[in-house]
Amino acid sequence: xxxxxxxxxxxxxxxxxxxxxxxxxxxxxxxxxxxxxxxxxxxxxxxxxxxxxxxxxxxxxxxxxxxxxxxxxxxxxxxxxxxxxxxxxxxxxxxxxxxxxxxxxxxxxxxxxxxxxxxxxxxxxxxxxxxxxxxxxxxxxxxxxxxxxxxxxxx
Length: 155
Fold this sequence. Notes:
- By secondary structure, the protein is α+β, with helices and mostly antiparallel strands.
- It is built from five helices and six strands; from the N terminus they run H-H-H-E-E-H-E-E-E-E-H.
- The longest helix has 22 residues, at 19-40.
- The protein is globular.
- The model has no long low-confidence stretch (mean pLDDT 88).
């Protein structure tokens, strides 16, 4: 029969992160911190170097850039188009969080053109592979604003 103390010890061991999970979180954090530092410095070559060749970018909403952009060239083209259409400017990195298999950057950005710009939190969820950013899901605090900024111009 298992005593109460043994049962509690087994329970604690079953919910505590394993050493490899902690190491996974530390590896993910290191990649996200390297990327965040390059982004904050606006160091484009260093930013680009953080992306895996098979990078996948998931954009949500109802706009011309919604969908999955597969491969580093396609994802970089979508990011460049997003920046061009929205006047995107990083204001700061609010937080970097990691868990098992994923990491998150909470970024504060200014979007929109002169006089119409809005500051917004954006949640970027990353999967890391081979020490590089392999996949990103972008969650915006105001998806309707993003969709409006990316809408094709009215005729």
